[in-house]
From TrEMBL, chains A, B:
Magnesium among keywords: no
Main location: mitochondrion
Superkingdom in the source lineage: Eukaryota
Ranges for domain Enoyl reductase (ER): 54-374
Protein name: Enoyl-[acyl-carrier-protein] reductase, mitochondrial
Reactions the enzyme catalyzes: a 2,3-saturated acyl-[ACP] + NADP(+) = a (2E)-enoyl-[ACP] + NADPH + H(+)
């Protein structure tokens, strides 16, 4: 029998992502009255929660949740690592289109080790490594209890920081490369924001498929080093925005690089216009971010005579549950690339005890920093 | 034997759309030396030509072409009527993306009566009404000789002004309604530039299919009369741009009208943004014109979170020869709607002898005027 420890909380709730308030109260009643002594219980869980939207460095706090009872099909996972993604920050700020129900545990992806199982669970064993797939909110805590259908077993040979962060950024890159054009070896893509993690993944995934990448970065001190770094990842051409202030950007294409059929935009404004300029007749630009906070401006003739299509991509919308199978297959492929050294990006593992320091770095308070991954 | 009359031309050429210069010279030689006396010849043709790009009222002139010899599979058509479309004007101005080879005969669509046939033509008889389908340049002349594959026989019960103008505008409307979304009765579309001929066709074609139309017009004197006119055609709702300066345009939708999945833009600027505002999650806006000469500006979140697609449509690009069959089927459908009184738009038939007056009207020199259709 699992030990039951009721921990004093500043507010008497369990966030919806773990158990909602009414269930929690029921559980407490249940625990002390009609308890089934054979029922497995989770350990208590230490979590990063927020009970109002606002700046993540002020509205988040660490609390401890009491153990919860595992239902027949539940799996209790001891979290190993979970990243702080920009979208996690937006969710806490309340500016994400899907606002989490408050109070909420932070985090949306991560990796953990199976700790204990509901009575009918057959497909997992304690010690297995799993990720929530599709991801679900609430990964910034030491123990997560979710139905077995949530979890996807992965190869334990994967570095935990990659296992923890494989969905939100790399899967976005892979899905966007597959969904909007039929690319084959020798084709080309163009993207702005090439130094972002999605951008770096696009470069490497394209290279793996023999697809050329044309990359646009903002003008900055040290842009030569950035170009070198992206080139090492497999970028075929890298331009700063100011280098593209020419009449015909296509004249800058290397001889072996065709006009790209597909472009990716995570910046907006002028950087989006530059992607459009590179696209070939009938090409598609996919917007997945707007770092400059500027809109996208397009001429009428781009649509009519150049026949461009402008689309958008949002991983969370695609990853509805009926896509779980496809999603997991792609995750397995991405993790295999990681293990083969064909997909890399910079991250920093920070102990959970230093969560607020990691959050400060993720918020950019200390200048440009590697992606922060919390290690539990 | 057809009589041969060589007419003095200011310049010794036949435009490419009829016969190119070298062929013409060959023909002259042929005609007077090795002539096959059984070969059918066209009558001479009076044509509107231009030998430089520029303002249509100054660069066009009327010339007479000498007869041409009909090849085995040629059909000689006596033109009955041909419209002056805005794209004809753009072609003459040299601002159209596909610039006609100079010198060129004006016009791109029209209707005519079969005059005479090449020796192997079986599918046409003199007196048949035909349209070039897909259209080809050079319809502003009294006789057009083209291969039989160019011509599509139509029902002679059709008013000639509609037969002459059925492709460029109505087919654009029909094709755009069919190609970019699967609409069914009860669905809705939104469009700006609703008073354009394409706009009027969209209203009527939508109504015929039980599809609601939400229409945006520019603010103007007499907008109430315009609204009334469009409503009579079948428009469900008509708004001026200024009426849509509200926080939530969708609150203006009538109770029985769902958020539109498809929008059409032929204006650009603010009028395009208004179309985007009406669109439902996952909707598509198709741009087919840019009357305001302003670009289209779109927010990042419209792409990512509202999942909008922006596309373009250009009839000329679609109507490549392998689409001829589909194109003709749609033309037949449109002409049947015309004959049933279900598709109407305002036109004025002007005699060919008044071509320059018709062109002045088409150029807007006399204010708003009905579409000009030349009657030969």
């Amino acid at each position: 029998m699992a030990s039951v420890r009721l921990v004093a909380l500043k507010a008497p709730y369990v966030p919806s992502s773990l158990r909602n308030l009414s269930n929690f109260l029921l559980l407490r009643t249940h625990a002390f009255t009609v308890r089934d002594f054979s029922t497995a219980m989770s350990p208590p869980s230490t979590a990063v929660i927020y009970d109002q939207y606002g700046p993540p460095d002020s509205v988040t706090r660490i609390v401890e949740f009491s153990p919860v009872e595992l239902k027949e099909t539940d799996v209790c996972v001891k979290m190993l690592a979970a990243p702080i993604n920009p979208s996690d920050i937006n969710r806490i700020e309340g500016v994400y289109p899907v606002r989490p129900q408050l109070p909420s545990v932070g985090g949306y992806e991560g990796v953990g080790e199976v700790h204990s199982l509901g009575s009918s669970v057959k497909d997992f064993s304690p010690g297995d490594w799993v990720i929530p797939s599709p991801p679900t909110s609430g990964t910034w805590q030491t123990y997560v209890v979710k139905d077995q259908s949530v979890w996807h077993k992965i190869d334990k040979g994967t570095p935990i920081e990659y296992a923890a962060s494989i969905t939100v950024n790399p899967l976005t890159a892979l899905k966007m490369l597959e969904d909007f054009a039929s690319l084959k070896a020798g084709d080309a893509i163009v993207q702005n924001g090439a130094t972002s993690i999605v951008g770096q993944c696009i470069i490497q995934l394209a290279r793996n498929q023999g697809i050329h990448s044309i990359n646009i970065i903002r003008d900055r001190a040290g842009s030569d080093e950035v170009k070198e770094k992206l080139t090492k990842l497999g970028a075929n051409q890298v331009f700063t925005e100011s280098q593209l202030e020419v009449k015909n950007v296509k004249a800058l294409l290397a001889d072996d690089i065709p006009e790209p059929a597909l472009g990716f935009n995570c910046v907006g404004g002028n950087a989006a216009s530059l992607v459009l300029k590179f696209l070939r007749q009938g090409g598609t630009m996919v917007t997945y971010g707007g770092m400059s906070k500027k809109p996208i401006t397009v001429s009428t003739s781009s649509f009519i005579f150049k026949d461009l299509s402008l689309r958008g991509f949002w991983l969370q919308q695609w990853m509805t549950s009926d896509k779980a199978k496809e999603c997991r297959k792609m995750i397995d492929y991405l993790l295999s690339l990681v293990r083969e050294g064909k997909l890399t990006y910079e991250m920093e593992l920070t102990p959970f005890s230093d969560f607020h320091a990691a959050m400060d770095k993720a918020l950019g308070k200390l200048g440009s920093q590697p992606k922060q991954v919390i290690k539990f």
